[in-house]
Amino acid sequence: MKRRTVLSLPVAAMLTAAMARPAAAAPTARRRAAELLGKLTLDEKISLLHQWQPAIPRLGMKAFRTGTEALHGLAWLGKATVFPQAIGLASTWNPALIEQVGSAVGDEVRGLQQERPKGWGLNVWSPTVQLLRDPRWGRNEEGYSEDPHLTGVMSTAYAKGLSGGDPDHLKTAPLVKHYLANNNEVRRDRTSSDIRPRVYKEYEEPAYKAAISADVACGVMTAYNLVNGRPCTVTDLNNSVRTWTDRALLNVTDAWAPNNLPATGSQKYFDTLAEADAAILKAGLDSFTTDDTDPSKTIAAINEALEKGLLEESDIDTAVGHVLDIRDRLGDFDEDGGPYGHIDKSVIDSPAHRKLARRAATEAIVLLKNAGGALPLNAAALRKVAVVGPLADTLYADWYSGELPYKVTPKEGIAERLGAGATVTAYEGVDRIALKNAATGAYITAGGAETALKERAGEPGEAQHFDVFGWGQGVVTLRAAANGKVVGMRDPDGSGPEGNQFFNDQDQPNGWFVSQLFKLEAQDDDTVLLKYSGYEDWFGDSVYLRAREDGTLVLGPAADAGRYTREVVKDGTEEAVAAARAADTAIVVVGSMPFINSRETDDREVMGLAETQAALVKAVLAANPKTVVVVENNYPTTLNWEQEHAPALLWTTHAGQETGNALADVLFGDANPSGRLTQTWYRSEDDLPSILEYDNIKHDRTYQYFTGEVLYPFGHGLSYTTFRYGRPRAVRDGVEVAVTNTGRRAGAEVVQLYTRQRESRVKQPRKKLQAFRKVTLKPGQTRTVTLPLSRDDLAHWDVTRSRWVVERSTYELMVGPSSGDIRGRTTLDVRGETVPPRDLSRVTRAENFDDYDGVRLVDEAKPRGTAVGAEAAGAWLLFDDADLGGGAKRLTAQVAKESSGEGTLEVRLGAPDGKSVGRATVASTGSRYQYAEVTAALSGGTGRQAVYLVLSEGLRLSTFSLR
Question: Where does the record locate the signal sequence feature (predicted)?
Fold first, then answer.
């Protein structure tokens, strides 16, 4: 039987909040920062607004730079401890561990403070808290979860480690990025994310707010995209982000984003850079990340804005005051560097950090499937193990990774664990080929660091052999057998003299413009064209390799492309199959190359394994049924065939230097897997709407609203032991449930609490994560787990009154190991509010609709405000359950219409094509930002009604009333 508890509001108010607001912070500006501000000249103050702040010797101020990358370790500054990617850190569901990781990264950032190399600074640009609502997003690896609560908890833990936990004495000054609603790379500086109030308040805002309101993050970086038609770079932070804490925040733009705003940029939101930069400061940003190390354009634009009256010196003082406050709290004005000034370079890649990296990589691993107890492997019984696949004996860094100080590959970790008593072999399962010009008989021949690839006559040897790695959709990389280096173009942006030639001189695909990508396009005459598929904007999308007269390979059009015969020197699949057949067990390691498959600037189009990798998995499984499949990538994958046929499936992100040891720990049972998925794994791309659709509620996104059948649910992850859940019960401070380890191994369970509101005025989530607890239990051990839940956790945003509301309803409380595996339920009757009918006689903002079709959310004015714009004729907005009383007599609305001609705004009841009770004619206002009041007489509408406003194409509606 389910336990029913009646929760009155006074009792509910006493429940412990999952993430309580901290006590009032200390004053936002310290005395020393205020004193320095008073001593600075105007020119000196303006110089501090750029990312690269110069030294001011007369005041004893050193040079300062915002923005050290520290996503999962200290990046771009040489060798440093590389922890699992952010998505992997979150997969541990262990905030205490993630805080330790953040602290280690903060120490390593501090470790360079005596040297202060170029590119280093104590303001770190991490964590990334964008919600992973669409698994195709190119930057999926950088975020934590599709869930705002889990993201908030993990980002707060990481930021607390980075900052040191004392807001008055900062180890580093982390900021969260990228604000707001940035979850697509395609046209990311031109697309606008439509975020209606419920989506913002219930989904988006909590992820950004958590670490800032806890005073462990010190600001935000704004995103490239627009939200509701307004660039995030000029989105008002003063009335949003800055209200979340009483402390000063240092808010920064993303790189080069200010230059997108003027007429010369991609967004063309302002005429001049001076107008744009003025708007940036007035919006609540303090630092311009633009033009690399050159501040001159920013300084000139700010001075022009001052001269034209677009800015006052007080605006400069406000921003610089924030900068100085953060620097002061970092100890930047202390001779000894403050409490963390003693940390030196010895902390980087220290033994303690290596141990922590291994633990984090181990806890990040998720056991997806384990049929018949296929895992853990019995090390004592194994004599021959084949580790196969393109990731079997390599580790890859990503764009925001540090330089790996050492590498323990999967093969190396397994071999180390098994020792001398077993033979461990590694085969990548890729073909080795030679490419022969069908017309001349010459072979493509490797060059090296000093010489470019050329066609050379003669019999093929090692210099003519290349290993072909498939990464999906026909894209391959070529690795020269002669030196083991990857083939790519130098200077792919065309900036250098070698930008049209190819060299085999890279350890892995890399760079902002990834140039190591090709396609072998089959022709009717059994030859192939070698298409360049790297960064194509400089060359067009149809460029191929051809040989000059001296044989050097360069780019050219398809008509001039060389036609090559593909000669297979070694069949990689056959080699892997033979090894697997001869082994006691085979371990296939497949996955992604993080510079190729999904990264910044590049969203995924398909969600499966690369075709060549999927074929390899099938072939190896056919050869040896005792095969374990390890998927190493940074996003959900449609592993439908693999889930059905493979006896055991493990997933890990790119987990850093200790990946191989961590895998071995889990494969052989030295560690019991405890990672859990932080995203829904779908069965098909067809389960998702367009990546540009941001309304989770309307489009049934994430586990909260999705109604289809999933491959793996949010929170999924298996263990080598089993757990039994008792009957949950609501208690004063949350929900209690007894959990028992019923297996024969110690293990960690992630106990998850979800809620569902049964009755509501509006569409509610099917499930909503409210709390979780990771607990470790010995065999037979039982522990009562308390999961916090407060009255406020049950609230949703009421658009009829623009405030939070807890409705009178029955709430289901569900506990289990995942959103798809609920082990116990109880209910809670809450004596909350009943939302009254809408009162449309009051001025109502159009954005506060209940449903819609054919509209976009748009900027009401450039500084602030959201309106609704009709994209097509017949667009409509629903304002449900409106009380028209004895009959509304007049429609009054604020409407803009930029295009010429007349439009209409019509009031209908019951449906978009229901009874018409009035229509207003709207004349052109000449500007999208010029609003005019229109009115119309109403007749025939009384009582409680579903009111529809039907708009003609091109109208913008900001507010209205029916009286």
Answer: 1-25
